[in-house]
């Protein structure tokens, strides 16, 4: 399983997770017909994206593809189903971030984000273009975050699709706008985290933002470390040192050591009250707990940030309960044993672990997981227990 | 020193640090006359801000005031001395973030940021207004990040000062613009971190961004966790437990414990290659190392991120040396011993520790520190050693 082998040899069993928004969802206000619509959409997009990963599509392309499907679906608050600002306009945001088991691959950028977009059919494709065009030779830049309108000119030059205002207008979002209430936390920001067969991990996130937000409000979706994050690092451990315990026992064993370690990859996407995500840097904080804080798993860290009583909830203090601090996070964690040169140690096909948690009524999510026999099961859920 | 005492009783000796930009500064390209200009400006603003803190001004007001002085000084890349975009326009960014030793004070917002500003004389004052107007009753919002132009309308309504394009035009920045090179890392983004007598810690940061950046490029200055961060938390430790070592010794001491701990506050401001700061969430990462990673001090964490060979430098990989990954961070750390109720334990006047590090040629910085006799010394430096 050395990375010197051709890329066509899969190192990992591909896996993925999607989210379609989190908030004050309740059984009493989610009729079966609406539940079925969400469930059908999420299952369809999960299946299509899983198929792409299984047939060799990269994590970045697969995650972005999943989000384009969600952006075209008016059920979700992104792309076509985006909420309106207080001025009755639509301003969309999106981001991508990537990491890889191959520590020697130095991607020119690890993430890119766009905000304030109007009429761009697929904001997530524009974020991806910004990531993949790192320099003047590609008509791009090294900029990580780009706000409209100039980046829309670039989008036209790069051949991205635009749609008129009417295409984005939906009765449901317009009614929410007319109610003149800021918020609507069950708004359906979307995200997807994918692990591909080569050990690349990617996260893609897209949103219309907050209902009746001020024009120009920037949320967590295009903000590094708030609504999204991806990171990889090595943890090396000297398992035994002759000089160390030889001296301790009074023996002279000479100096020797066995250096072994793991490479860890994490990627997460958040949804909920974006301002709280910003104020606690939710996505980066969860990953920092794993990298620096000795959190045994990403699952534990995600719970400590986005689970009940976690960092996001505590950030709202006495204002908890009216939407502030509410939200959820999805993610994938990968551990790979590496040798002294930092190359993956041979073994069975690697696995990624899908994780999620939320501190509010519900979070729309869909993922695949293996049962005891290694068979992959598709899941769609909104509450903690079954609908 | 209980926080039940009136606010007029100082708990801390006020302290502060300013930065005026970091980059490929060299003795050979920094003539004495220019050095003296920077040195004089920084010392003047340091002294004025220190005086404010000593006479009871809050950390937020003092840090913001320091930055307004730097914004009016064409030496620095912010406000009046801002660099130009590729379109020959000026687009400014600023942010503020606060924390406090009083864990029971739940500020409605902990930070606010603005970007893409034109003609606003003091972007930092607009960031502060956004922080201090948390709701509709104040003509504000709970939004954490606001991009122009709508927030400029608010700035007019709130009475902020605007200046025409000519006021912002400087020969030096225009010449840099005409050279058509993107970058200029010794650009002079500014920041200030202040600790006041009540134990409030505030950070204020302001910039014109990157020379010849694309219009709409968002840097690290208005991005939570990238170019700025402030945070406070409690670390409690059970110093002795009767049930624990009583059982160990075979004695029945009953169950008792002494709960003691510290409250820690950190605040940092960064300057340098903003895109690298974004890609490693530099400010939040440094503070996470202290909070979650057991870094003994903020100084160590700032070195691990912004010092030579640190996280920022490593993020540039093979592209290190042409500006990418270059920069520095300033900050203040505070530790307060607290009792079982979380209230500060009486004792001598508390101290904040000023910290900084950088991985490039130099970083303009000014700070106060106590000598052995408790006398406060003013410092201005640009290189590691004296000029």
Describe this structure in words.
By secondary structure, chain A is an alpha+beta fold. Chain A has a domain at 15-65 and 178-381: (Glycosyl)asparaginase (Glutamine Phosphoribosylpyrophosphate, subunit 1, domain 1, 4-Layer Sandwich). Chain A contains 11 helices and 13 strands. Chain A has helices at residues 32-54, 59-72, 123-132, 150-157, 165-168, 171-178, 242-249, 274-279, 282-291, 298-306, 311-316; strands spanning 15-23, 92-100, 111-117, 145-147, 190-195, 200-207, 217-218, 228-241, 257-272, 327-338, 352-358, 362-370, 376-381. In chain A, the strands form 2 sheets. An 8-stranded mixed β-sheet of chain A has the order 4-3-2-6-5-1-12-13. In chain A, a hairpin with a 5-residue loop joins β12 (362-370) and β13 (376-381). In chain A, α1 packs antiparallel against α2 (59-72), α2 (59-72) packs antiparallel against α3 (123-132) and α9 (282-291) runs antiparallel to α10 (298-306). The longest helix of chain A has 23 residues, at 32-54. The radius of gyration of chain A is 22 Å and the shape is globular. The two termini of chain A are 41 Å apart. Residues 1-7 and 239-257 of chain A have low confidence and may be disordered. Chains A and B meet through β3, β4, α4, β7 and α8 of A and β3, β4, α4, β7 and α8 of B.
């Amino acid at each position: 399983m050395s990375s010197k082998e051709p890329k066509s040899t899969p190192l990992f069993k591909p896996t993925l997770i999607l989210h379609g928004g989190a908030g004050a969802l309740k059984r009493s206000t989610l009729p079966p017909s609406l539940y079925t619509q969400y469930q059908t959409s999420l299952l369809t997009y999960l299946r299509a994206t899983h198929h792409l990963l299984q047939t060799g599509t990269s994590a970045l392309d697969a995650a972005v593809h999943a989000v384009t499907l969600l952006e075209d679906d008016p059920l979700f608050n992104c792309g076509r189903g985006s909420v309106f600002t207080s001025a009755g306009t639509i301003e969309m945001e999106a981001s991508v971030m990537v990491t890889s088991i191959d520590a020697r691959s130095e991607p020119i950028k690890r993430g890119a984000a766009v905000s304030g977009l109007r009429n761009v059919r697929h904001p997530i494709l524009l974020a991806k273009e910004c990531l993949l065009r790192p320099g003047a030779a590609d008509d791009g830049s090294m900029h990580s975050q780009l706000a409209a309108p100039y980046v829309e000119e670039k989008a036209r030059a790069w051949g991205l699709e635009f749609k008129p205002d009417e295409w984005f207008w939906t009765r449901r979002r317009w009614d929410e706008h007319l109610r003149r209430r800021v918020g609507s936390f069950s708004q359906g920001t979307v995200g997807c985290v994918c692990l591909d067969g080569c050990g690349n991990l990617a996260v893609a996130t897209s949103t219309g933002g907050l209902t009746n937000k001020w024009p120009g409000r920037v949320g967590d979706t295009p903000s590094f470390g708030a609504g999204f994050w991806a990171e990889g690092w090595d943890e090396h451990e000297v398992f035994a040192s002759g000089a160390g315990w030889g001296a301790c026992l009074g023996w002279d064993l000479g100096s020797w050591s066995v250096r072994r370690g793991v490479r860890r990859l994490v990627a997460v996407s958040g949804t909920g009250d974006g301002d709280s995500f910003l104020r606690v840097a939710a996505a980066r904080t969860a990953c920092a707990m794993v990298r620096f804080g000795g959190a045994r798993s990403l699952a534990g860290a995600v719970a400590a940030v986005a689970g009940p009583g976690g960092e996001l909830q505590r950030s709202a203090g006495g204002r908890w309960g009216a939407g502030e601090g509410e939200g959820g996070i999805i993610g994938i964690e990968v551990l790979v044993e590496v040798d002294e040169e930092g190359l993956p140690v041979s073994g069975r096909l690697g696995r990624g672990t899908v994780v999620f948690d939320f501190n509010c009524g519900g979070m729309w999510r869909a993922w695949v997981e293996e049962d005891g026999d290694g068979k992959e099961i598709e899941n769609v859920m909104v509450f903690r227990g079954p609908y």
